[in-house]
Every structure is written in structure tokens, then in C-alpha cells.
Amino acid sequence: MKKLISLLSVFLLALLAACGNTAEEPKKEAPKSEQAADEAEEMKAAVTLTKNEMAEKVDSKEVAFEEGQTLMDAMKANFKVEEAGGFISGIDGIMASDADKTYWHLIVNGEDAMTGANEIELKDGDKVEFDLRKYE
Questions:
Q1: In terms of domains, do 45 and 91 share one?
Q2: Which tops the pLDDT comparison, 40 or 61?
Q3: How confident is the model at residue 74 (pLDDT cuts 50, 70, 90)?
Q4: Model pTM?
Q5: Residues 27, 55: one domain?
Q6: How many domains does the chain have?
Q7: Which of 3, 64, 88, 89 is most buried, judging by how many CB atoms fall within 10 Å of its CB?
Q8: Cα–Cα distance for residue pair 126/62, rounded to 1 Å
Q9: How many helices (H) and strands (E) in the chain?
Q10: Smallest Cα–Cα separation from 50: which of 130, 134, 111?
């Protein structure tokens, strides 16, 4: 009986040793934040500044932004922006003025915006135009 127990013990030890030698090391994964950064595509929008019903081009820039970011956030990150009540009143020192009866008209993807830049969530590939226009 002792021989049988000894034989079984040796067999189990050999089996455990064999299993231990064939086990692979677990693969190290990049931290999730790095994976997300690598997998996330950079989102961009084209922003153009013009004056006088788009007759005079002032500036044009491709801006990068994160998903869920508003146009106001992207503008502040890429231009010197002054705002009043969610509406842009100045861009890179070019100010809208009640005295001159001018305002920054906003067009997104060819359509007049009906809200302020602080309420417009950017999407990849958006074309944004700000035109300094006169009102009556």
C-alpha cells in the first residue's frame, strides 16, 4: 500500500511539474487609457473666419477636438475668443460692435446656426464659418 501511495505521489508531482513548465506567461496589456488614446481617432473641424458677407478671408484653420466638445470650447482652445452670453463677440482681436452694427454670423456645414457656439457639439469633418457681418 505504501508503494502505491508513493507511486501516486511521484506521478502527481511529475504531472504538476510538467504542467508548470508548459504554462505561458500572461501577456502584458497596455493600460486602458493608452489603448483608448491609440484607438481614438483625432477629430477635426475646419474653421474659417471672413468679413463682409464672406468677401474678405481673415483666417482658416483646422482644429482638433475631443468627442462631445462644443464649438465654443474648440474655438477657445485655438483662437483668442471673447464671448457674451454664449455667443462669440470677438475672435483674435476682431470684435463685433454695436457702434458699427456688426456681429459674428455662424454657419456650420453650410447652414446658419440657430444657437450660440456654446450649444453646438462638434462632429468630425464639420466645416465652420464665422463671418463678421453688418446688421440693420
A1: yes
A2: 61
A3: very high
A4: 0.69
A5: no
A6: 2
A7: 88
A8: 10
A9: 3, 8
A10: 130
